[in-house]
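>> received
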Amino acid sequence: MTWELQVVRDGQQIDSFSGTTNVGQARTDTHHDKVQNRVGCADQPAGDIDLQRTLTISPTHASADDITLAIDA
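>> returned
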């Protein structure tokens, strides 16, 4: 089954996950967002921060009328 999951914050899509997964199987994806803070009087770049979002999607049921997904975030 092909699926897409959109991550929305404050009404704006900020990320999306998609894949093809059979019923009874799981798929895990991790997306990275590297952020660099600017600090000090000169507003110089400081260390990077690697923000991660990991989701595991597992279709548990699929029929012609409905689909059930288990989502672990």
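>> The first strand starts at residue 2 and ends at 9.
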